[in-house]
Design goal:
alpha+beta, 7 strands, about 25% helix
Length: about 130
């Protein structure tokens, strides 16, 4: 089960989770102060997912699980909840790296290799049609 994070009283316990998903957690946190950007955490605060939601699509911006809680299905549960989040969402997208692309593919996301943005890094756009 996911709960929406109240950014007015952002719990510092979530900062390590956001740090796992980005090199710039404080900059990322500012994103979620804008409309259509939402940050969710698990009830146990061991998983975090950040989204940009529009009328027809949802973009996964950040996804992380604390290392002691990894390989226990927490990220999978978060993805399933996002897939069923809003009936008007037609597709879900996520940009990811080679390490995580198979995670998205197991849910039925189709992956497209993106042109190189960064040296020595392969990026993918993953798309799921709801």
């Amino acid at each position: 089960m996911l709960k929406k994070v109240d950014l007015k009283c952002f719990p510092l316990i979530l900062l390590p989770l956001l740090s796992l998903a980005t090199f710039h957690p404080m900059m990322a946190l500012k994103l979620y102060t804008h409309n259509n950007y939402t940050l969710y955490t698990t009830l146990q605060n061991n998983g975090l997912i950040g989204l940009r939601i529009s009328k027809s699509y949802c973009e996964i911006l950040h996804l992380s699980v604390l290392p002691p809680s990894q390989q226990k299905g927490i990220a999978s549960q978060m993805i399933y909840q996002i897939i069923n989040l809003n009936p008007s969402i037609e597709f879900i997208i996520a940009e990811t790296d080679l390490e995580a692309v198979t995670f998205y593919e197991k849910f039925g996301f189709k992956s497209i290799k993106l042109p190189a943005k960064y040296p020595d890094t392969t990026r993918f756009l993953c798309i799921y049609h709801v």
